[in-house]
Every structure is written in structure tokens, then in C-alpha cells.
Write a structure and sequence with these properties.
The structure holds 2 protein chains of 2 kinds. By secondary structure, chain A is mainly alpha-helical. Chain A has 8 helices and no strands. In chain A, 81% of the residues lie in helices and 0% in strands. In chain A, helix 5 packs antiparallel against helix 6. The two termini of chain A are 35 Å apart. Chain B is mainly alpha-helical. Chain B has a single domain, classed as MetI-like fold (Orthogonal Bundle), CATH 1.10.3720.10. The longest helix of chain B has 41 residues. The chains are: A mainly alpha, B mainly alpha. Chains A and B meet through helix 2, helix 3, helix 4, helix 6 and helix 7 of A and helix 2, helix 3, helix 9, helix 10 and helix 11 of B.
Chain lengths: 208, 240
């Protein structure tokens, strides 16, 4: 469940990050302003507050809309919260990655008569990956750990299950320690894979 | 629609929570720094007996969720009867000190890595110049490496301060009444989640933005030479 929540949030968060970076780099001031407010606000508020707001707030909204009591499920609220948090940080990373690609390359491609879409797909996107990977990798590790926060709204992921078992067996230290080890395993495996992916993305380059 | 009267009424209570949030943050940062200095020294040592334990400590605290660490200390310490007989028990019994202990140990791990990176980033030539002038290794470390390292570490450490402010909200999960704790209690009474959590979120936002401004001023003030502004990559590294 922990991995599922994290993986889904990664996909949506990356999507949001792309849109956010697009908005920040766009020619329209209104779009830039909206994206600026989004990243500043989300990055300045604790993840826990965002999760609680969406969970309890979502329940109130849906109840008002439906006319009877509806409870938002922790899964939906959790994924939504983690996605918008991930998206806010990813926006900055993608923005930085786009800016790291020399402008001359885009201009050269335009001068050769390539259309904007073609420039994006064949020049920007392949290189974006390389510049954004270290940052996105770090965010993934943060996301894995943040997913533990969803246990607060009752979703039975790794930590919630641990809390239940710890309470039932009266051996809290043993079980929380075991949970810590499982998270540690996830993060160590992830960073090993990321290290390999970064090397692969940087192949053919001197010192990256 | 939002009930603005209620939002206004919740402000005094939440400001009470702000005091607890600030206390938790400041105390954890101080204890964390005290712990991080020897940790960074051990981490950079050559002997495996020194760096291996430091490395294990840092990997554990950076690789597991803070919430798990809090629960491990708060609930976990009750499992062993012998802990109850030690002088530590009055500390471990209190949610307040458990939270501070967890935050301090957690931020110490991140801070130690930041310090290590900074110490290693001090240009070798500057240290060699000091040695050539007849300084002892210790004097060169104290007068050249350390001050330079603190300046180099500042942007990354600033990010860590922001992260500690935000993660102090986890204290609410072990009954503490910080901003988040107060907000959760208010929501349970009024059942007005939007109003209360939005005000709470705004408080954190103000706190974080104010801290960012102060940090920018300090960084500017301590700018001894042309240090490049951090790139998004640096910021992301620090966030990880």
C-alpha cells in the first residue's frame, strides 16, 4: 500500500510538475503568477496540514454536495495531497532543468525550421531527463517517507498496520523498528537504482 | 462559503500553538547542531571505527520517515521495563521531550551531512596557504576550514531550518498542541476544517517566508567572496 500510494503520487506529481514548469516558463504573466503562488504556498506549509485539510475538508465538501454524510477515503485524499506537494517541488526541478539547457540549442533548431513541438520532443525532453533526474530522485525518497503521514488519516499503509500490530502485541519498539527497517530497505534500493539511472542518463558525457 | 468570523476567532488559539511550534523548532535545531558537529567530525574521519557508526546513524535517520522515528521513541521506549528505572524515564515519558529528541536526532543526521559537504568543499589551497604560514593543522582547521565551511553550509542549512519548522507539525501526532495540534483540536470541536486548517497553513507560511527572508539577509551579510547562488539542483540535493 505504501508503494502503491507513492507510485501513483509520483506519476500525478510529475505530471503536475511538468504543467507547473510550463506555466512558470510561459509568456503569459497570469500563468506565471498562478504557478508562483502554487509553489510558494505548497512548499511553505507542512505536508501534514495539507493532508488533514484535504481529508477533513473533502469530507465536508462531499457531504454538502451529496446532502448526506460522505467520508472521503484516506487513499484518495492522501494521493491527492502527496501529488500536489510532489508537483510543487517537481515544478522547480523541471524549471531548473529547462533553464540548464543552453538556449542556443533551441534557437539553432528553430533556425533550422523545426516547429516548437518538434523542438520540445527531440531537443528539450531528452536532455531534461538528465538534468532533472537527481532532483526527482531525491523527491521520490522524500515522497516514500512522506507517505507514512497518510497513516494519520487512517489509511492502512505500512505505518498504520505497524501501529495496530504494535498495540495488539504490546511490543511497540520491535514493530516500529521493523517498520523503520522496511522503509530503510525501500530507500536504499531506490537510491541504488537512482544512482544507476543517473549514470546511464549521463553516459557519453565527461564527468557528470 | 468560508466562515470568516470563525477564522478570526481561531487565530488567538493558533498563536498559542505557534509558541509551541517555535519552541520545538529552536530547541531541536540547537540540540541537533550540538549533535551534528561531532557526528560530522566522525563521518569525515579516516578510521572505519569512527566513520562507520556515524554513517550508520546518518543512513538510518535519513532513510526512515520522521513519523516512524517519533513513534519509535514515544511508544517504543515503553516496551522495556529497565528504561523506566533509569533517570531518562522522566524525559521519555513526556511527549514534549520525545518530540524534541526525535527532531534533534533527525536534523542532526541531515546537518552532519551538510557540514561534511561544506568542510570538504573548502578549497585545499586555502588550508595549504595557512599551513605554509606556519599554522598547526588544528589552528588551520579552526581559523580557516571551520568559518569557511559554515559560510558554505549556510544555504543548505537554511533549507534544513525550513524543513524542521514544517516537520515540527508531526508533534501533533503524539498529543502536543503546536499549531497543527491546536488546529486539529479546533476542527474536532467546530467541524470547520477549511477555516481552521487554512489559518494554520497561513501561519506556517508566514513563519517560513519570514525565516527565508532572515536567512537571505544573513547570507548576504556573510558574503565574504563571490559565492555562486544555489542552483535548483543544490536546493533539491539539500531537500533530499
Amino acid at each position: 500500500m505504501t508503494l502503491l500510494v507513492s507510485a501513483i503520487s509520483l506519476v500525478f506529481g510529475t505530471l503536475v510538475g511538468f504543467l507547473g514548469a510550463g506555466a512558470k516558463l510561459s509568456r503569459f504573466r497570469a500563468l506565471r503568477l498562478v504557478a508562483d503562488i502554487y509553489t510558494t504556498v505548497i512548499r511553505g506549509i507542512p505536508e501534514l496540514i495539507i493532508i488533514l485539510l484535504l481529508y477533513f475538508g473533502g469530507t465536508v465538501t462531499l457531504t454538502a454536495l451529496a446532502g448526506h454524510y460522505v467520508e472521503v477515503n484516506g487513499f484518495g485524499a492522501g494521493v491527492f495531497a502527496l501529488s500536489i506537494v510532489f508537483g510543487a517541488y517537481a515544478t522547480e526541478i523541471f524549471r531548473g532543468a529547462v533553464l540548464a539547457i543552453p538556449r542556443g540549442q533551441t534557437e539553432a533548431a528553430r533556425a533550422l525550421g523545426m516547429r516548437r513541438a518538434a523542438v520540445f520532443w527531440t531537443i528539450l525532453l531528452p536532455q531534461l531527463w538528465r538534468f532533472a533526474l537527481p532532483g526527482i530522485g531525491n523527491l521520490w525518497l522524500v515522497l516514500l517517507k512522506d507517505s507514512a503521514l497518510i497513516s494519520v488519516v487512517g489509511l492502512e499503509e505500512l505505518l498504520r498496520k505497524t501501529a495496530i500490530t504494535a498495540g495488539a502485541t504490546r511490543q511497540p519498539f520491535t514493530f516500529y523498528f521493523a517498520a523503520a527497517m522496511i522503509y530503510l530497505l525501500f530507500t536504499i534500493v531506490s537510491s541504488t537504482v537512482l544512482h544507476w539511472a543517473e549514470r546511464r542518463a549521463a553516459r557519453g558525457l565527461q564527468s557528470a | 462559503m468560508l466562515n470568516f468570523g470563525l477564522m478570526w476567532e481561531s487565530v488567538p488559539d493558533l498563536l498559542g500553538g505557534l509558541a509551541v511550534t517555535l519552541e520545538l523548532t529552536v530547541l531541536s535545531l540547537i540540540f541537533g547542531m550540538v549533535l551534528a558537529l561531532p557526528l560530522a567530525a566522525l563521518r569525515t574521519a579516516r578510521s572505519p571505527v569512527c566513520w562507520m557508526p556515524a554513517y550508520a546513524y546518518i543512513t538510518f535517520f535519513r532513510g526512515t520517515p520522521l513519523l516512524v522515528q517519533i513513534f519509535l521513541i514515544y511508544y517504543g521506549s515503553g516496551q522495556f521495563d529497565w528504561i523506566r528505572t533509569t533517570p531518562l524515564w522522566p524525559v521519555l515519558r513526556e511527549a514534549y521531550w520525545c518530540a524534541i529528541l526525535a527532531f534533534s536526532m533527525n536534523t542532526a543526521a541531515y546537518t552532519a551531512e551538510i557540514l561534511r559537504g561544506a568542510i570538504q568543499a573548502v578549497p585545499r589551497g586555502e588550508i595549504e596557504a595557512g599551513l605554509a604560514l606556519g599554522m598547526s593543522r588544528w589552528l588551520a582547521f579552526r581559523l580557516i576550514s571551520l568559518p569557511r565551511a559554515f559560510r558554505l553550509a549556510l544555504p543548505a542549512y537554511g533549507n534544513e531550518i525550513i524543513l524542521v519548522i514544517k516537520s515540527s507539525s508531526l508533534a501533533s501526532t503524539i498529543t502536543l498542541l503546536d499549531i497543527t495540534g491546536v488546529a486539529r483540536t479546533l476542527v474536532a470541536h467546530t467541524y470547520a476544517p477549511y477555516e481552521v486548517f487554512l489559518v494554520a497553513g497561513a501561519l506556517y507560511l508566514v513563519l517560513v517566508l519570514a525565516t527565508t527572508r532572515v536567512l537571505a539577509l544573513v547570507e548576504h551579510w556573510l558574503k565574504v567572496d563571490a559565492v555562486a547562488t544555489p542552483t535548483p539542483g543544490d536546493v533539491a540535493q539539500a531537500a533530499g
